[in-house]
Design brief:
Layout lengths: L9 E11 L4 E7 L9 E2 L1 E4 L6 H13 L7 E6 L10 E11 H4 L10 E4 L10 H18 L11 E2 H12 L5 H10 L3 E8 L7 E6 L1 H6 L17
């Protein structure tokens, strides 16, 4: 049985994947396989099937187009402009994810030419994918001010310079090295390790781990690192 007189509309799933390689925030894109805009750069997208939930569709599409699986995806928003897809009326349910690139780099396949781009160097995206990305960046900044979400982008052990690069990339700003180090250590949320990372300098930088229990007790501890936090917390 169907609802009489109702128009059936396609539902697409689009996935925005942010990754951190230890130095830079990057975005994972694929080349579109369908007309129109075939061969142009796109977010990971596909259509919802009759027998799957939105989350199942997002997992399937991400695995099919990139090879990635086991990635935490969070629903962002549904885009429903009647003219967003020139072929047919299509709603798009958008998800975004944060990953440590080095943790997943062996999973990436090249069947659909998935490629990492620096956010500042990314190509123009198809349809309304630029709007989707802008909203995801805004949500990322908002959540990073309140939750330890950015640590999803880091390995279990990380250096303060890596953490600083990550926050600078997310908020598109530059922090003073000494001030950032002093402020981050003053929170008491990082546990210093004995080992050093000596890849980038002879002196090396100590590794740290996040004390997740302390972080939950001091949820707003990172707010003082964020430029104009009220801009992102409205």
């Amino acid at each position: 049985m169907r609802y009489s007189g109702q128009t059936h509309i396609l539902t697409a799933i689009d996935c925005i994947i942010f990754g951190f390689d230890g130095n830079d925030i990057k975005l994972l894109l694929v080349q579109r396989a369908l007309k129109p805009e075939k061969g142009k750069w796109s977010l990971m997208g596909g259509f919802l099937q009759q027998d799957e939930s939105l989350e199942q569709a997002a997992d399937r599409i991400l695995k099919q187009l990139t090879g990635l699986e086991g990635v935490y995806l969070e629903q962002l928003k549904t885009f429903g402009d009647p003219h967003r897809d020139p072929v047919e009326r299509t709603l798009s349910v958008v998800y975004f994810a944060l990953i440590d690139i080095h943790q997943y780099e062996k999973q990436i396949n090249d069947e659909y030419h998935a490629e990492w781009f620096l956010l500042k160097d990314k190509p123009r995206l198809i349809f309304d994918h630029e709007d989707m990305l802008a909203l995801a960046q805004q949500k990322l900044r908002y959540k990073a001010a309140l939750h330890p979400i950015l640590f999803e982008l880091l390995p279990p052990k990380f250096t303060i310079p890596q953490l600083q690069s990550l926050y600078e990339g997310v908020y598109d700003t530059t922090f003073d090295n000494r001030n950032f180090s002093r402020k981050i250590l003053s929170t008491g949320l990082l546990v210093k390790q004995k080992e050093k990372d000596k890849v980038n300098s002879k002196k090396g930088a100590f590794y740290y781990k996040l004390d997740k229990k302390k972080y939950k007790a001091k949820l707003g501890a990172f707010l003082n690192f964020i430029p104009n936090p009220d801009k992102f917390l409205q």
